[in-house]
User: What shape does this take?
Amino acid sequence: MNGHLSSRPSRTAHLSVRLLLSTAVAGLALAGCRGNKSAEPPVHPNLNMDFQQNYKPQEENAWFSDKRAVRALPAGAVAQDRDRSDVELNSGRGADGRLLNGLPASVKLDDALLARGEERFGIYCSPCHEKSGYGHGIIVQRGLKVPPPSFHEARLQAMPLGYFFDVITHGKGTMKPYASQVPVADRWAIAAWLRVLQVSQRAQIADIPDASREQLLRGTP
Ligand code: HEC
Assistant: This one.
């Protein structure tokens, strides 16, 4: 009985030491939380591919005689997307400097081009210009200050195809250029699709080839 009583204080002392220890551990864990400032490099338990043996641009590489990690390009090398030798394709203008009134000779008009144009137009242009080209896209509905013009107004109907390529490349008024996001080939595909939209809104029954016209009038696909 006595022994039992005398063991009590020592058990309490044991418990309080445990409590103190665990508080200290919890405190340490909290001190190392994300967002806390420290002069030490962060602990990085899972390395993934964060550290790799590769060379940075100005680093030395003893394997080469000139010790340059970055190798010089062969003379005359041109990056794949930097070949500007096809002037019509890259500028939208003919040799006379005037905007092309059609596709450049190197671009073939086919279903694939139009399908690509429709898809890219949907991504890059329709948020403002609307899929139909009337200009009431979602951004305009949400309050774009200067709304875009309709592609179906007479002035834009009369524009040569190269003009649309030019507007995508360089922007126009408050519309920013899309050259950095839309590669040259896609700009032509979009320009061609823009023309399709224009034609679609003023098509006459006589514009439809005979065979398709019959089908259309019969109402069967
Ligand atoms: C963020 C909205 C926005 C997007 C996206 C956008 N445009 Fe525009 N676009 C405008 C606005 C606004 C104008 C009118 C600019 C002005 O007159 O100051 C305009 C004008 C135009 C014009 C008429 C230029 C003229 O002579 O009046 C064409 C053509 C055009 N855009 C084509 C495109 C094409 C093609 C794309 C996709 C690659 C595109 N735009 C993407 C907002 C946009």
